[in-house]
Amino acid sequence: MADTVLALDIGGTKMLAALVRGNAVVESRKMPTPRSGNPEQWLAALFNAISGWNGCYDTVGVAVSGIIDGGCWSPLNRKTLDIPDRFPLVATVGRLSGTDVVLAANDAQAAAWGEFSCGAGQGEDLVFLTISTGIGGGIVVNGRLLGGLAGHFGLLRFLDEEDGVLEDHVSGNWMAAQAAPHQAGAAAREVFEAAAAGHGWAKNIVLGSVRQTALLCRNVQLMLDPARIVIGGGIGLAPGYLESVRQALGSLPPRLTPQLHAAALGESAGVVGIADLARRQN
Ligand code: BMX
């Protein structure tokens, strides 16, 4: 049991619970992030679903969409995940799990560590981008994961305050809003399916997201010059998306061209990363 960690990943669209042994996910449960209620109720439902794992772990890692300060969880963009400010995440998870070793971190930062330590990063410094409900990011420099606000690329703003933040023009919520006049209730998945079926409106939405992501990658390369940019998330890993971003970067001089890699751990990057971070804290 000593090496087995309970890892939770709570994003704007899904909640994932996993038992992680070493760098391997040995059991997992996934459920949609509820559109109503509050984090206390969501966590209680998650722990009820994994009650059969009681006694299998003594360390817990929690990766969440939002920012953690002093064990408390707050949103930075309520359109991505609408939670109250300073929810006592570490204390709540400690109580529900019955363990006193709980580490909480931002979901994209945890995923960056997962990809650095045993995924597409291959131990090289990297910037991780998740194109998902929002746009998350994590930065590993000189083998160290940056914390706090570092990597919150989805919250970059435009000159006109009215235009909101970058992720509101790129990610899942934006794609669904753009699709609404063409296919009521369509989420990003349906937009990709319609694009693959040849519908011009859907192709334009995907292309709009791709172009913004390509521009973000260009700017990240100039700011941080990472050896590689690792792309994850439900949109980032959608069929053809990463290749379309590479094509959008095609005209750049080689030295300025970001080296893009798909997240090798896929949707497990966050749980594998937070498990390793929690183990190191223990
Ligand atoms: C937002 C922000 C980040 C998060 C990113 C991806 C909130 C609630 N979240 O920029 O902390 O990493 O979205 O979130 O402000 P995801 O839900 O798409 O994984």
Annotation keywords:
alpha/beta, binds 2-acetamido-2-deoxy-6-O-phosphono-alpha-D-mannopyranose, Nucleotidyltransferase, domain 5, five-stranded mixed sheet, 282 residues, single chain
Quick structural summary:
By secondary structure, the protein is α/β, with parallel strands linked by helices. It is built from eight helices and twelve strands.
Detailed description of the structure:
By secondary structure, the chain is an alpha/beta fold. It has two domains: 4-110 and 268-281, ATPase, nucleotide binding domain (Nucleotidyltransferase, domain 5, 2-Layer Sandwich), CATH 3.30.420.40; 122-263, ATPase, nucleotide binding domain (Nucleotidyltransferase, domain 5, 2-Layer Sandwich). Helices cover 34% and strands 23% of the residues. It has helices at residues 39-49, 89-97, 107-118, 172-179, 188-196, 200-224, 241-248, 269-281, and strands at 4-10, 14-21, 24-32, 59-64, 67-69, 72-74, 102-106, 126-131, 135-141, 144-145, 228-232, 260-262. It is globular and about 55 Å long. The two termini are 13 Å apart. The chain binds 2-acetamido-2-deoxy-6-O-phosphono-alpha-D-mannopyranose. The site of 2-acetamido-2-deoxy-6-O-phosphono-alpha-D-mannopyranose (BMX) has 23 residues, from α3 and β9.
What is the strand and helix layout of this fold?
Blueprint: E1 4-10, E2 14-21, E3 24-32, H1 39-49, E4 59-64, E5 67-69, E6 72-74, H2 89-97, E7 102-106, H3 107-118, E8 126-131, E9 135-141, E10 144-145, H4 172-179, H5 188-196, H6 200-224, E11 228-232, H7 241-248, E12 260-262, H8 269-281
Parallel strand pairs: 1-4, 4-7, 8-11, 11-12
Antiparallel strand pairs: 1-2, 2-3, 5-6, 8-9, 9-10
This protein binds 2-acetamido-2-deoxy-6-O-phosphono-alpha-D-mannopyranose (BMX).
